[in-house]
Each structure stands twice: as structure tokens, then as C-alpha cells.
């Protein structure tokens, strides 16, 4: 072993992108170490990211050091684990001796897939006053810039301007061939994630109409987030057996009831008064 010389650069890389975009990077032992190795220095530089909320620029160029505690000529690998969502990064590797002599850097370019996930469950509440279903849509962690949120409703009725559900979304939402379904929204995920949305308000969301619902009917809802040019499976939230109850009278209709009762009572009193007056008139005659 040559002492106090510059070590060889690590080479013969292999890497695996595991769940949650954790990268397991491996390389063969050095042919020439230049003395006892102190560590492997890993520098990770982000080239591009598709995240909607970018992380701090300070964390896009990270330097890590992995100590070599039992390095021998038969040591085969050291691991570098680095997690980042839907991005392209260059990972640079160099060997450092105990004399702080460093090898040249070698690098590998890695593309990590998306790991978007809902940050909670879908909460549903029926608004009985206007036959709508209120959705508290959870936020989406690791949301990307080109993601789209689709809200699919399955139920007994369609409005005139309903939007058909594409076949791929029908399969994801569990809509069978003979079942009725429509899209209530098709917008950028950032517009609806983490907010409240009303199913059945008859408004337009991303060129599709949010069809009104019928009272005393059951509905099923699926929220699907897809990403353009991504091999990652869409994320989905569903809710079934949601019943929209009978719509109660409006507030202005409630004011009519006492007025009607007053008129009925007043009419009855007037009728009785007239009958009694007629009887008195006959008796006097």
C-alpha cells in the first residue's frame, strides 16, 4: 500500500431507487487507497425538481461524510442514502484519507420518481339545506407542478352539461360499465388540496360542470391525483354510501307559515262573528 498519496476515485457505481425515493448507492473498493481512509465524501447537487413547493436552495447542495471504520481490501460497498422527491440530482463521490488527501470526484446522475401522498383522510359532510356534499380535501405532500386533481362522482343522475369520465379514471374510481358517473372538477392539485369543496354547486371547475345532486339519493366520490409524464401510480381517496337527505324549507318559506296560520285563524274568527251576527239579527226580527 502506497502511503500519503492521492487515493483512487471510487468507481463502478450501481444504484437502486427504493420506496419513497431513497437511493441506495454502491461502489467497489479502491484499487489504491493512498493510506488509511478516513471517509467517503458525498456531495449531492440538485439539477432540477418538479416539486410544487421547492425546498430551500441551501439544501439543494448537500455534503455528507461517511466514516470508514473497518476498511480492508475486501470491503465491497459503502451506502449513501439520500431522499428527494421527483427530481434529478448529481451525486459526487470522493475518497479522503486520514492525512486529508482527497481523490478526484466521480459522479452519477439519478432520477427519482414522485412520492406524492395525501396528508390525511377525506372528511365528508352533507349540507341538507341545498343538497350538496361538503368535502374537506386533505393536503398533498410532495405535490408536483404538473399534477391534476380529478373529482369523480357516481350517482343516479346526470345534468345536461355533465363531463364524461375517461376510461382510465373510471377504472381507478371503481366505476363499472353500467354505472353512471361524471367529473365534478378537473383542476391543478394546488387549487383544491387542503380546502373545502362542495359537490353539487353547479359551478364550473376546470372546464367541467359540478352537476347538482338530487335529494334522497346515494352517491360515491373518488378524488384522484395524476401526474403528467410519470410512471408512478395515481393517489386516490374514496367515500361511498353518502346520502343526500330531503331538503328542508328555506328560511323565507318558514316566515310564510305563521302568516298563513294568522290568516286562517282570522278567517275563522270572522266567519264565527258573521254567523253570530246573523243569529242575533234573526232573533230580533
UniProtKB/TrEMBL annotation:
Transmembrane stretches, start-end: 254-273
Keyword terms: Membrane, Receptor, Transmembrane, Transmembrane helix
Protein known as: Receptor-type tyrosine-protein phosphatase T
